Each structure stands twice: as C-alpha cells, then as structure tokens.
From TrEMBL:
InterPro entries: Epimerase_deHydtase, NAD(P)-dependent_oxidoreduct. GO terms for molecular function: aldehyde dehydrogenase (NAD+) activity. It comes from Duganella violaceipulchra. Residues 7-219 form the NAD-dependent epimerase/dehydratase domain. It comes from the Bacteria. The lineage of its organism: Bacteria, Pseudomonadati, Pseudomonadota, Betaproteobacteria, Burkholderiales. One of its GO terms (cellular component) is cytoplasm. This is NAD(P)H-binding protein.
Amino acid sequence: MEQVKTALVLGATGGVGGEVARLLVARGWRVKALHRAPQAAARRGDGMEWLPGDAMVREDVVAAAKGVQLIVHAVNPPGYRNWGQLVLPMIDNSIAAARASGARILLPGTVYNYGPDTFPIIDEESPQHPVTRKGAIRVELEARLQAAAADGVRTLIVRAGDFFGPKAGNNWFAQGLIKPGKPLTAISYPGSAGVGHQWAYLPDVAETMVRLIEKDDQLDTFARFQMEGHWDADGTQMVAAIARAAGKPEMKASAFPWWLLALASPFVAVFRELREMRYLWQQPVHMPNKRLVQLLGAEPRTPLDVAVHRTLAGLGNL
C-alpha cells in the first residue's frame, strides 16, 4: 500500500495556504498546520492536524516538519505589519526545516520582484529589478531559497496574478474593486484605462500547485512556474463579470480613490502597501504559462463568470 504523504502548511488560515491545505486533505495527504491557538483552529473541522507553534520560532517549524515531504510556505504578516522584520526570518526557518526533513518548500510567488524594465511580458527567468521595498524583500527571500537549493534544499515557486476567490485573504478584488459583506452597489477599478491586468482564481492556483507537487520527481531542485490565470486585456472584463454575477450587467466601474490611500497611508499599513503597488496598475504585466503547460498539459482554469460568482457569494455580496 502506498504510504500517505504528509505536508506542513504555514499560513493555513490564509487565502492560498488554506486552499492548498484543503486540497491536499482532499487528495489524501496528511496535513499539519502551525497555529498559536491550535485548539481554536481545530474547531474549523477541516481535516488538518493543528499543532501549537509559531512560524517565527525555528524550533517550532523544524519540529512540526519532521517526517513531512512538503512545506507550504504561505505565511505572511497579518495586515502587512512589520513586513520587513518578519518575512526573511520566517523563510530562513522554513529552509532550516526543509534541510532537516528533506521536504520540498512550496512558495506562492508574486510579480513584486519585477520592475518596469521587464514589462510587459515576464517569464520565469526575467531579471528581477524591483522598485519597491516589498519587492526587494521578495527578491532576497527567493535568493535565499536558490542559495539553499545549491545545498540540496528543494523549492517550487508558482507565480500568479492578483488573487481572488471566496476565501481569499488580503487582495485587490476584495479591498479595491468591491466591498465585501453587503449587496453589490458599486465597483471601483484601480487600473488605468485600456491597461491589461492578470488575475488568478485561488482554487485554480491551489489545483495548479498540487498538480505540480504530484510531479515532484520531474521538478528541478529550484523550480519556478507561472500561471496565466485570467488575462483581462483592457481592464474591462473583470468589471463586466462582476456586474453580470451581481445581476446588474449595466453597472460600470468608477475610478479607484488613490487619493484616499495617499491620505491614509501614514496611518494604515494595508493602504500603504496597496499604494506602493500602484505601478502594477499603470502598465500591463503579463505572465505566460508556457513552461507550466509543457509539464501539466494544460493550466487548471475555472471560467471567469463561474469564478467571479463563487467569489462574490463567498464574500457575502450576493
């Protein structure tokens, strides 16, 4: 009988971590998750094994990773607070745990690593010249993983566009385009007119990641892939899908209030981080998925209208 595989998920209460964890459970994996209040987390009834611990404490991560084949590193500081002080120590702890257990690290990647010098088309080997503080941290994070790969620590990075989904965490869809928790009455759009934007439905992201992990023996020690997700060529397709899902196809988007973010940024960390990413809305940034399709044959992709309807339902907008 085939041995049950085990994964440790860091960030299992978040958007991408939660989706990947639930999918692994459904695929027959044993899934362990760290939480500072594991008894409360266990009441979620999601089939995971919740362990006491903190991703900032190396001993906790190393102990939890004993015997696992996969470490999902999907943990981020809540509300982007203390980003610079927390992100790199946490990846160092995951690297130490992977080195001790022999597990592969799975990291959700971003486009923050890249600057306008690589736009509009980015591939997995494009040079990383970030223009933001957070982008520079992401570059250093991946550099540490690549350095560890030379010592045998295996990593899988999967990049995708802006997340959306019924259980997504901090994201532009729920924080910029609509207001969760009430019937939809307005849509705002952060992008410049006619500028394309890339979106990723979180369940599709999780499915892609798990399919790649299931082909672990075909992956490089340091493997990177990109998802195409839903490419909105002129910034109108996502807005139209939201309006259709809400039963108001005539609804149009208003301009996103960037001026409000500028006023509130000194006081609200989330607004400060969102404002820093404005350059990604002012020009198209497109990630082709050729490498991914070569390995998987096709990219998992839920039709846009279905994905948006499920997202709005999950966010309490319908």
